[in-house]
Amino acid sequence: MTAPLITNGLINQLQNICGNANVFFDVESLHHYGHDETEKLLYPPDVVVKPTSTKEISQILKYCNENLIPVTPRGAGTGLSGGAIPQNGGVVISTEKLNTILEIDERNLQVTTEPGVITEVLQNAVKEKGLFYPPDPSSRGSCFIGGNISENSGGPKAVKYGVVKDYVLNLEVVLPSGEIIWTGANVLKNSTGYNLTQLIVGSEGTLGIVTKIVLKLIPLPKYDLLMLAPFASLEKASEAVSAIFRAGFTPSAMELVEIDALQIVSKMVDSYVVPIDESIAAHLIVEVDGNNLDVLMSEMEAIAELLNQYEAGEVFFADDAQQKTELWKLRRRTAEAVKLAGYTIEEDTVVPRAELPALIKGVKALGRQHNFHAVCYGHAGDGNLHIRIKKEGIPNSYGNEEMNRILRALFKLVKSLGGTISGEHGIGLIQKDFMHIVFDEANLNIMRSIKKVFDPNNILNPGKIFDL
Amino acid sequence: MTAPLITNGLINQLQNICGNANVFFDVESLHHYGHDETEKLLYPPDVVVKPTSTKEISQILKYCNENLIPVTPRGAGTGLSGGAIPQNGGVVISTEKLNTILEIDERNLQVTTEPGVITEVLQNAVKEKGLFYPPDPSSRGSCFIGGNISENSGGPKAVKYGVVKDYVLNLEVVLPSGEIIWTGANVLKNSTGYNLTQLIVGSEGTLGIVTKIVLKLIPLPKYDLLMLAPFASLEKASEAVSAIFRAGFTPSAMELVEIDALQIVSKMVDSYVVPIDESIAAHLIVEVDGNNLDVLMSEMEAIAELLNQYEAGEVFFADDAQQKTELWKLRRRTAEAVKLAGYTIEEDTVVPRAELPALIKGVKALGRQHNFHAVCYGHAGDGNLHIRIKKEGIPNSYGNEEMNRILRALFKLVKSLGGTISGEHGIGLIQKDFMHIVFDEANLNIMRSIKKVFDPNNILNPGKIFDL
User: Fold this and answer.
1) Which of the four, A374, B19, B454, B461, has the lowest number of CB atoms within 10 Å?
2) Residue B227, SS3 per DSSP
3) Of B77, B94, B111, which closes a domain?
4) CB spacing of A219 vs B249 below 8 angstroms
């Protein structure tokens, strides 16, 4: 593709479509929309537009497609793989003004929403009706549901309830041509043609822009119980994780947090509810939920007993809502805290659950070999381990040859354990160079060809997931 | 595509690849592989081959692709949309000799299997390890897991546990070119590139041939309870269905069977466990499962109370394993029984759950208007209604203009209710002409283009889902 022409004509066109008040090209805006939460990257766009309807997005895409202008769709900018970074300049389309929950269908347990609604706002709105939308990325207080669709996000509840893809029934999508389609139907089962819905979920804004979302809801469980178990060894902790599932339990959360990360986040949020001392290497956070409190209590006891067999220290049960909130706050703010402490590079590896001990061991060995610090935390029940890396003088992996060598070794290890690069953050900008480690050229060719089906001119989020 | 050349060269080639004993072109074989369970259709292929390895399938596809010979992949031939019918002749590849369960991974709660394993055999094998693979199409005693992948099958348990797509982690697929890919990784969460796994699931053998399957398993619930509730009105029964979910219950099965169907199947299997009299229009079958019997008992009571509010007659609780087996046998053999009774045409409509009463009402009105008999049954909890149609002198919908007019009216109704054509049977051969009722041309163009990405020569199951 030749370099895009960002001209006054483009600005005028965007202003005609969306109104002057929704088009931005001041330095501050361009800086703000030039980064997300990924590493320390900054690539300002040429112009930012905040459409207020599907029709406006359609008109913008049609114009940009005809004029070969790159467009980067953006939710709340909380992404961790650079999916919303406009590294080629061009237009950023922010969905922040498409922020209405359109319908909570209590008859069918479904919600229809625009993409710019904050995930937690959506969760709370359906909760008021006794309904539950489980996927809860750590950033749920600020991320948009549209971004969650793009990255196929997960979160702690995924281990029992599944990820975003398991709740998406139907999507309104604007194609790069400006055409508007619905991908499916508002039904729980669907064998009608290729599953375009699932193709769009997790496609990171490279195939179309999602403008309406129909999600499945489930009844809200009445109770949850939470406990925290300290371990003297990271590997023992991760062995215990896999034992719990083998014993037939399905906790509603099963998180692992390494002690270094807990130390950092405890200090940042000034909370010391979690025991931290030299004998502890990591904590497991275990939650169960359901409608019968007695059943949950006996489940919790049985799980605690099992954890003891894996050399857990004294288990701490969260007694009330306040303690639970405190514990979850610590867990949810871990990424932010360790990033502020210099662990700017985050990986989102995922392996079969029982391979977690091997992965953790391998990460630590790589750290010693290549002289970097790593702290690990994440959704251990899913085998999804976030690895935060601090290496003196190297704030970004993207564009750094030394860091890339290290990550190649990491992903080769992950692949050898039956895992893959990303469990819930996406590939985006920063991990595309590693796709060939987990996929054959035949897979990548299919993906590239699918991209061309949707976006023959490569205007929509170009340079993400793979290069064409 | 020009007419294929079926020559001795082809036969020789197949014999070279698979051995003489695995290539069939006798009349009986061609007849057997010329139909599945769909209507009364018969289109014999030119030759049937039964490969014993992925490599053989790769060699066959490569040859057929180079020589533009149509290939129809086939599981157990239990399909209901004609997906395995070789209406263009050519080669049928039967997966019946790829029938090994390769590994039950108890550490990670996964199973890896070949496609020609009977679904119930797979379920029983993992059950022995205390594990559960829930999707259970009515034909599970004879259908293959590979066919289930192709059609994204469901079954009674889907209402609580989801359909096939919710359990597929990774697939080995032979592309029409002969290339062999794995679509994903053996992990519970995956945001690494486009979701090729979900694109293959439900693609009805038009994009590639699945040769290995990795499925997620869950712990086997310890108990289940089953009850049967008679209703004087079909619409009241279907209103009750939606009320149960609104009240916060998630049964592990929620089936509706119209009395005419029950009458026919009871007679066929010579079982009269289900009350049949003139005051009854339909029965609901409700199952709950879990690990705590007391909890299940009180759930069952609460559901029975709710059913009473919707004018259920006397509820029958299945007391023991034998009664449960008897009830399920009746339900599972309904399709076969009503087909034998002349209801040869089956539709697989799906609507949002609360629209079931409107759909049933509409079906009955269409029957009066167009002079056909319809019996309804199916997975009411999912809004997935099977409609079996008997019309004097018209055994097939495929190729019958009068029946097509009726089905167009039916699918327009379904679409107007927010539903779609197929919940779990697929589009196959017989429903492709109705795709434009539920999809815009833009959707269909995308699907056709995706087909061309995988199969540029249109050799693999051509003429299924849509025409190119």
Assistant:
1) B19
2) strand
3) B94
4) yes
Which residues 280-299 of chain B have a CB within 8 Å of chain A? 291-292, 295
B393 inside 8 A of chain A by CB: no
CATH at residue B134: 3.30.465.10
CATH number, domain with residue A86 = 3.30.43.10
**B296 pLDDT more than 60:** yes
H-only helix segments in B310-400: 321-332, 334-340, 356-370
In this structure, is residue A465 part of a structural domain?
A: no
Output the pLDDT for position A107. 94
Measured in angstroms, the CA of B349 and the nearest CA of chain A are apart by: 9
In a domain, B204, yes or no: yes
CA distance A68 to chain B (A): 21
pLDDT-derived band at A7 (thresholds 50, 70, 90) equals confident
Nearest to A352 among B108, B182, B245 (CB): B108
Q: For B111-168, how does the pLDDT look when each residue is reduced to its tens digit (9 = 90+)?
A: 999 999 999 999 999 999 999 999 999 999 999 999 999 999 999 999 999 999 999 9
pLDDT of B100 over the 70 cut: yes
Chain-chain contact of B250 with A384 (C-beta, under 8 angstroms): no
What's the rounded Cα separation, in Å, for the pair B44 and B24? 12
B215 plus B126 within the same structural domain? yes
- Encode pLDDT of A41-78 as tens digits: 999 999 999 999 999 999 999 999 999 999 999 999 99
Q: Which residues 6+ apart lie within 8 Å of A285 measured at CB?
A: A156, A226, A227, A228, A253, A254, A255, A256, A257, A327, A331
pLDDT at residue B1 greater than cutoff 60: no
Name every chain B residue with its beta carbon within 8 A of the beta carbon of A249.
219
Q: How many CB atoms lie within 10 A of CB A316?
A: 18
The CB density around residue A183, as the number of other CB atoms within 10 Å, is 26
State the greatest distance between any 2 C-alpha atoms of chain B, in Å, as a whole number. Answer: 69
Provide the 3-class DSSP secondary structure of residue A125: helix
Among residues B335, B369, B399, the one where a domain terminates is B335
- Kindly report the CATH number assigned to the domain that includes residue B397: 3.30.70.2740
- The verdict on A421 touching B (C-beta cutoff 8 Å) is yes
Contacts of B187 in chain A (CB under 8 A): 350-352, 382-384, 418-420, 423
Closest residue on chain A to B434 (Cα): A192
In what helix (H) or strand (E) does residue A457 lie, and over which residues does it extend?
A: none
Looking at the predicted structure, is the pLDDT value of residue A33 above 80? yes
Same domain flag for A329 and A249: yes
Residue B185 in this model has a pLDDT that exceeds 90: yes
**H or E segment at B210?**
strand B209-216
pLDDT digits (tens, 9 = 90+) for B64-75: 999 999 999 999
Cβ(B248)–Cβ(B184) under 8 Å? no
Nearest CB partner across the interface for B435, out of A175, A184, A193: A193
Q: Which residues of A touch B242 (CB under 8 A)?
A: 107-108
pLDDT at residue A6, as a whole number: 67
The counts of H helices and E strands in chain A are 16, 18
pTM above 0.90, yes or no: yes
| Structural domain that includes position B391 | 342-423
Give how many domains chain B has, as a whole number. Answer: 4
Residue A5: pLDDT band by 50, 70, 90 thresholds?
low
- Calculate mean pLDDT across residues A382-394: 96
Share of chain A above pLDDT 90, in %: 95
Residues in A closer than 8 angstroms to B163, CB to CB, are 189
On whether any CB of chain B is under 8 Å from the CB of A349, the answer is: no
| Position A2 pLDDT exceeds 50 | no
The reply to whether B120 and B213 lie within a common domain is yes
Instruction: In whole angstroms, give the CA distance from residue A144 to residue A121.
Output: 9
Model ipTM?
Answer: 0.97
Q: What is the predicted pLDDT for the residue at A274? A: 87
Q: Are A149 and A201 spatial neighbours (Cβ–Cβ below 8 Å)?
A: yes
